[in-house]
């Protein structure tokens, strides 16, 4: 029994030794370590607007339902798909305030509208202002192919790392070979706060039916950084 245990211990020791030597040989290869960075600027094609309709804000004392009908008609009139791209995100009715202060019951609704161009955003601001709806803001910018662009910027980053390694090695008469190690350094999408809402509101009062300004939003920035080690040949 002791003999079998001794043989097993020897085999285990040999296995660990071989494994350690293999790992050591891999790590101890001469290598160059570099980082590659890449950036893509994307014009957003998904622009989310928040529209708030509140009965107390109506100059004509129109009910919420009346204002909602007017809004849907106005949006459909300029090409917005009201069934697909308009959604209710909040609905409130101030019953508590009514019972405490004995005031009229005011109701309000918040809508989210998905728009695909700056020009359409400007049209919405202008058309809704005509029907006494002006509580509109831009809440989010995105792109329909954002995942594809994320992959693309990562590919550009690793290519930049390999190119950097090749340039450095060429300077000393050597070459950068296969990759030994690759690590992605996390990068987030930078979504800037845009002043487009204020710009549109200023333009809406001066814009005519013949000309709708094409509002430009600040581009989305996608960044990627890759750290890599390449064998020195």
Structure in a nutshell:
With 233 residues, the chain is an alpha+beta fold.
Secondary-structure element series: HEEHEHEHEHEHE
Measured as a percent range, the helix fraction is 40-55%
Number of DSSP helical runs: 6
Structural class: alpha+beta
Summed over residues and divided by their number, the pLDDT gives a mean of 77
Shape: rod-shaped
Spatial gap, N to C terminus: 51 Å
Number of strands: 7
Strands across the major sheet, in which order?
3-4-2-5
Strand content: 25-35%
Largest sheet: 4 strands, antiparallel
Radius of gyration: 31 Å
The low-confidence parts are: 6-25, 95-103
Describe this structure in words.
By secondary structure, the protein is α+β, with helices and mostly antiparallel strands. Helix content is 42%, strand content 29%. The strands form two sheets. It has a four-stranded antiparallel beta sheet with strand order 3-4-2-5. It has a three-stranded antiparallel beta sheet with strand order 1-7-6. Helix 4 (118-130) packs across helix 6. The two termini are 51 Å apart. Residues 6-25 and 95-103 have low confidence and may be disordered.
Structural topology:
Layout: H1 2-27, E1 31-42, E2 46-54, H2 64-77, E3 86-93, H3 95-101, E4 107-115, H4 118-130, E5 136-142, H5 146-171, E6 176-185, H6 196-206, E7 220-232
Antiparallel strand pairs: 1-7, 2-4, 2-5, 3-4, 6-7
